[in-house]
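[job 4471] stage=fold_predict status=RUNNING
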Amino acid sequence: MEDYNIPSAERIAILQKLQEVIGGAPLHFWAACQICDLEALAKFVKCGLEYPEILRGFTQLTYPMICYWGPYPSRKSQPSTPKTPTPKKSTPSKPGSSPSTPPAKKQKTLDSPTIYRNRRVRELAEQRDNSRCVLTGSGEIELAHIYPYHSIKEKEEDILGKRHMFWDHLKNFWSQEKIDIWKAEIFPNGISEAGVEKVYNLLTLSAEAHRLWGRGAFALKPISRSEDRKTLEVQLFWQKKQSEPQTTSLSTMPLSTEGLDHSDNKTSIFRQDSGQRIKSGDYFNIQTDDPDKKPLPSFELLELQWFLQRIQGMAGAADIDWPSFSESGWESDENIPDLDLERSSLPSISIPPSPEDLRRAIYNPDNSKHQTIKVERNSDEFGDDCTA
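[job 4471] inference complete, writing structure tokens
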């Protein structure tokens, strides 16, 4: 039932312990705790027992993680179906003037830090999906990125940049093995380099489905991929916004999405062949006749999307306009708050002598399954070790 956002008994028990430790959390962190690995929840409980004040501050980082995952709200999607250009009358050039020439398009060089949208890749994605929405069957389509294009188009060498912080924060909710698989799909040369623009990162969707998906109104769960790599089965689940305050109890139960056939603002999408509303739990097959040239959507990237879309939807992103990154400070020169805190900034909290030890204890960038981190204060240990 966790697919419908109903937590298992084991998850409920761990969340109750975490609630006792930190006494509530921001809505986005609460949503992430409903779907993350159970091992991650256990780690939060153990670390929260050591320094709950720091863990409470740490919970604030989930919002910018999900904000980074979402699309730029100021940009409207452009339909991929070609439009017939309006003919214009030619005007003779004036004597002495040079004929007008269209501006040259930017070309990617070998050392270019930016990638540009690849027309051929987009054409192949359309061909794979027969120029139809993979959900509704509509012929009026837009091409949608599974992993956001804005996050792959440029290099980011700053280890405290938005992309690095996004991937660092993911490590707190899912295993290193999953993170490495997801990362390799889109950043084969490492996250400091520009990502890759590939057919497997694209889906064809109707304009309405694209808009709803971009706001977290539904998520697609990858179910299976055939051995010949020609068929991918996915399942759609609508998401329901939680009517809770921005700080909520971690033991609050999510709203079930079972049987849901619309977004929170009552918008539905329909199967074109039958006219039926698409509801939570419906299955869809995406196929290709050439898995090499026109590969199926990435199972791995869809898995990442399956997790993050649900956080976005449950926390209320489906029916609001995100503030632009510049308005929210997300594009400012300030970096996301880090846990390497100065002692003077928190006079009422006992901070371990090494800020790096504290960062490793919470973030655990290496995520070694057998690594034990000991944080000491005045030569006395806090108590039990905080194990990653």
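[job 4471] summary: The first strand starts at residue 25 and ends at 26.
[job 4471] exit 0
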